[in-house]
Structure formats: C-alpha cells, structure tokens
Amino acid sequence: MTNHESSINHYDVIVVGGGQSGVTMSYYLQQAGLSHLVLEKNTLFHGWKNERWDSFTLVTPNWQCDLPGLPYDGNDPKGFMTGKQTIEWLDRFGKSVDAPVKEGVTVQHVFKTRDDTYKVETSQGLFSANQIVVASGGYHLPIIPRMAEKIPKSVHQIHSANYKNSKQLPEGNVLVVGSGQSGAQIAEDLHLDGRKVFLATGNAPRVARFYRGKDVVEWLEDMGYYQMSVKEHSLGENVRQNTNHYVTGRDGGRDIDLRKFATEGMELFGLMTDYNDGKLEFELDLNENLNKADDTYNNINARIDAWIEQQGIQVDEEPSRYSPVWQPEAERGALNLEESGITSIIWCIGFKPGFEWLNAPVFNGQGHPQHDRGVTSEPGLYFIGLPWLYTWGSGRFSGVKNDAQYLIEFIADYQKRKNLKNIDQTQKATESAVVA
Length: 436
Known about the structure:
By secondary structure, the chain is of the alpha/beta class. The chain has helices at residues 3-8, 20-31, 46-50, 83-97, 181-192, 216-222, 258-263, 286-311, 337-340, 397-435, and strands at residues 10-16, 36-40, 66-67, 70-71, 101-103, 107-112, 118-122, 125-134, 141-142, 156-159, 173-177, 197-200, 210-211, 214-215, 267-269, 272-276, 279-282, 334-336, 342-347, 351-352, 381-383. A hairpin with a 5-residue loop joins β6 and β7. Keywords: Oxidoreductase. This is MSMEG_0569 family flavin-dependent oxidoreductase.
C-alpha cells in the first residue's frame, strides 16, 4: 500500500456497525469535527429490516424513541411503532445524519500497531484509525444448540432471527423454544394465526403493559429505573446477563400471559434439555418458571404502588395482584415428537457475541467486552449499543443517544492529545534535522 493510499484510508475514528448506535455515533463525530468512517457488513439498519417478524412492534412506547436530531414526531407518542414504521423512522434518521458509511464491508481483523494506530482489515481493503468504536451490538451469532442436530431432518428448524410469519412454516404444529421477548411474541403470533403451539419456557420474567392508568414503562421512567447505572444495580455487572421481560406493543399494547394461552390450547413445558429416542426432553420446572415470571410482574406493580403512595399521586385504579388463570396439572418431562404433530421448531434462545475479529485484551471468559460505560482499558477503543452499557435505558433509542454523548467527550479528548503528541514529535524531528 502506498503512502497516498494510506492517507486516504486513515481516519480519526472508524465505527464498526451501521445500526442506530453507529449512525448516532457518526452524528456526534460530525459535530466534533472528527474524520470518521462507518463500516457496515450489510446495509444500514439491517437487523431492523431483515431480522424481525412481520407482526413485530416495539415493546417500548414511541415517546422513548429519541435519536439525535430526530425525536419521535408522530401523532401517537404513547403507542408502539410497527416494524415498518420503525424502519421508516430510522431511514429518515439515517438520511438526516448522512453518515460517511461503506456498506457491504465485512471487518475481518482489527489490531493495534506499536505506534498506537488501529489497523482494520476488511473485505474491501485495509483502513486505519486512531480510535475504534464498536457499534455492532451484542447479538451476533444465533444460538441453536447442538441437540438440534439429533432431531430428524424432516422437522423444519429456524432461529427467531429468520422467522417472518406462520406461512413460511410447513403445515403442522410448531415448537417454540424459549419464552423471552422474541419467544413469547412469536408464540403469540403463531397462536393468533391458528397454529397449534408447544412452548418450552425458560426463566424470563414478565411485566404488565398497563397498570393503574399508565404504561408500566412510563411509571418506571418516572421512578428513575431507566437512569439507574449498572454500578447502582444490586446485581452489578451481572445484570447485563438478565433476560428482558416479556410483554408486547401489538394492537396498542397488552400483557403476554402464557397461562391464558394454555387455557386456549397452547401446550407449555419447562426448559428443553435434549432430544433422544424420538422424544423431546424437558426440565420439570414449568410451574417454577410461570410462578417466577408472575412474581416479577407483581413485584414491579407493588413498587409502582409504593411510588404512588410515596408521591401522593392521585389515580383512579386501586392496587391489584395478578392471580393465575391456569395451573399445570402435572409436569411433563418428555414429548413424543411424532405423536405431537410438530413439524417445525423455532429456536428463540438468543444470540452469543462474535468479536473474534477484534484483537484486544478487553474480553471476559464468555467473550463479552469489559468496559466502563463503553470505555475499555485499551486506549482508543470503545463500545456502544450493548445491553446495560451503562443503564437499563442503554438498550433503548434514547439511551443510545445518551451513551454516545458520553463517549464523544472521551473520543474528542483522546484525539486532541493525539494531535498534540504528533505536533510535538514533528517539532522534535524538525529541530533534529536543523541541528544535523
């Protein structure tokens, strides 16, 4: 590579990832006057456009959709944007920022040289930068367990990231594995479309959609929960491993009650553990999973009750607790696959991180980056767009905005010090040349 090519491909900052976090970072880098490039292996907002099901809606109310220069500007701030509406809003955000982006570029290797410059090897050549912002999120590699290999090939298996609607599946019954946000909502989607659903539950908690006259998200915002930092949380950094509460914004927003689905014909099981001799195997923990989810539901409502009383807020609705509408008669540890009529399995058990391309000593034993509000121990290397990067709100649009505002201060200061160091080195070199 020639010196000319090197200067063309060098930037103050390279941002890896072109989702809302990467584009938001570009907004603030532009304001700071820093040269930068956003590298995106697919297209801007790819995940939103290609890895959501057709009936998808946001589970957070529209008023929380606040990106720099483009807060939610529709006529339903307390509603929930559909997938299509979210994409349209994000496209408008992308156009307003006009980030310097290269799409279709896969980052293959990032490493730091002895002169504190980051080299970025990609599918379209070599780039370099003084600093790197990793904005690719934390959901990279869809998890499908090895036990899936034992299930007959006649059974259609997909990950939640590839689910669109019930019509893409063959006729027959469907097993949904996992009851987090995606699993619960996909199970509901199939159920509402008239498909017979078997659901293998996990330890995901649930939350009410509305309580005592307001969306629970609005109550929690008022109570400061979305501003609580990871350092203030009782679980500390372990909270980053928590599963999100299941609820939906579909049809104006409502609870997701797995027990109610059971009264309507959905069959519930505990945690799926294996497949052997024609049988799907499950832990005998369905009742425990349902009870824990309901306990979380009631505990959150109780905290809202305490807040209302403490603040002297006048509301019309009285406090209430959820009472189970269904109880499992007995735990079932196995299900005959052929007799069940299951022809499809949707794995909704999440993703694992995939940062193998980043050569930096900033990862823990599970492959998750270690950082303090996105700032790593490696100078010039940052993360944004991770769950609980700093607060619970970090996973929401407005939280990404706040995290980017924080990081830009570090990035601008690092670049300033880098520039001063370069000037000093140039002066010393010039002085040496004059003396010689």
